[in-house]
Task: structure prediction
Amino acid sequence: MIKANHLLRTVLLCVVMVVGLATLPGVASQTLSSEAVWFNGQKADLEKTVQKIDNQFYITFTDLVRHIGGTLNWGPDDSYIECQRGDTLVRVIPNRSHVYVNGVKTDLSYKSRRIGSRTYVPLKPYCQLFGLTFQWDSVLSRIYISWSEET
Result:
């Protein structure tokens, strides 16, 4: 009986710690389904859900580039990822708030994040890098990303 009580207290302590961590800034997050993200009028087909962390929406860099068009190149290791879209080359360094745009260091104020084996980027600042329009509809809880198609 004593061992069972000790085990129960240990489990409860772990639960309290996990719940406590979820309320810390930078740790707490919520997700949005892929139905909540639209690219140029088309519902997104995302491999991973969008994360909302510290009031910023994060999407995998792969999902973003796949929907807006561009070419991804991974560095010789996991130290960076590059995307070429039109005349814009962006080098992302995971877990950093700066990127390199056409070779120029640019601070975005929000860092990219490695979550599992994926690199998530803050959606609004990255849309601005590529000249895209970002719009949040708080009534429908949807993100709209748009750009003009060049013919």
Observations:
- Residues 29-146 form a domain with the Copper Amine Oxidase; Chain A, domain 1 fold (CATH 3.30.457.10).
